[in-house]
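Retro notes, structure queue

What went well: the backlog is down to a handful. What didn't: a couple of records were mislabeled last round, so from now on we paste the full input next to the output in the thread. Example, using Metal-dependent carboxypeptidase from Jhaorihella thermophila:
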Amino acid sequence: MTAYDDLMAHARQTMALAQIAGRLGWDQETMMPRGAAAQRGEEMAAIEAVLHARRSDPRVAEWLETAEAPDEAGRAQLREIRRAYDRATRVPADLAARIAQVTSEAQGKWAQARADEDFAAFRPVLEEVVALKREEGAALAQGGDIYDAMLQDYEPGATGAGIAEIFDAMRPRLAALRAAVLDRPGPDGLRGPFDERAQMKLARRLARVFGYDFSRGRLDKAVHPFSSGSGSDVRITTRTAEDDPFNCIYSTIHETGHAAYEQAVDPAYALTPIGHGASMGVHESQSRIYENQLGRSRAFTGWLFARMREAFGDFGVADADSFYAIVNRVHNGYIRTEADEVQYNLHIMLRFDLERALMRGELQVADLETAWNDRFAADFGYAVDKPSNGCLQDVHWSVGLFGYFPTYALGNVYAGCLHQALRQAVPDLDTQLAAGDLSGATGWLRENLQRHGALRPPLEMIEAASGVAPTEAPLLDYLEEKFGALYGLKAA
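Corresponding output:
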């Protein structure tokens, strides 16, 4: 056994334990008894303590000193192990365990506060989460910017200043497009009811159409849809609403994008540091291109319209063109996950600015609800009506995911670049989509990006797949062309 072999054996066991921790989180979101929350917090803290000890084991440093990588994949493994070890050794073990316990408990308190429309009830535990994450961020930053340190868990190499620069470049064109579209009459939304069992049946069909392998996964319901796992056990969740089947349909397609990425990673990388997505931004590029550029395209919605008629009968929409317009309807709304393509990134920019201020100590939790409501009114032009439509709508902060939100918008930027390349590589893409055949699109993504896992850093991964350095221009051009045509704008 060489130092490299010893290191990889250790890493493989650590990754296996991390998968078990992820399965506990999946269970907590889908079927754990409500009364088990406190015990689950202890369980999560216990396994996090084990994981932290393994990740910061002094032997890792010794192995890294002498390990020789056999190939490109081996060099990537060492890069990821070194990065994880560096971060783990900066965070005290008791702090890591405490964060795991508090965030596990906070998740349940968030769900209850959201149901009760009571931010004040959630505030104390969120204050504790924020304090713990600031402490962790300070340990990681070692005198640098705390928020930049937090970002590395989700988008290695990114900085708050760099993301702000991208967002500043996007905001004017997005705001102008939003104003122009909302100034034009648009279609009404769907009118229910839509049987929820029929929604779930259609959701399972759509997951298969987009390439999800149910022999290595399952679809369940959760308050906040998510994907969990890697390799041979990748699970997805969705949600249903009797009056809104798009919530279920597009949540399912979105999570299938995440899951298909994990299922497509080269099996040789399974349970290793590169055996998963390259970053959350790259991950979001897959879920967003599945959901939007493919799933909301004119070609695919024509096929989906027929499937909707099969599932629900005559649901009040005359034809496929009318259905396409409804699927892509731009309208006022509070909820990020239900936002149209034009406005979605504006929701992310709001969250990015607020969480960056929280981590820097420029905003206190006590002022968060007011800050959110004020910013929302300024950005969208109307007032938040209740906490579940405001700062209680997302689960992320309750579980300590500070630095995660901007990756959603980065994913859209990356998806714009990938879509541009995909269109060039598969010239008959619309013909395939109109037939409900996603194999050309998903096959191209699998071959050019997904199978590589975390072999390369995020920006290198997108550039290698798309042939261009990532920029916001392809996304903005796509949005202006699509919605300009839909709403009859002069720029179309």
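Agreed that this is the format going forward. Reviewer comment attached to the example: Residues 50 and 135 are 20 Å apart (CA to CA).
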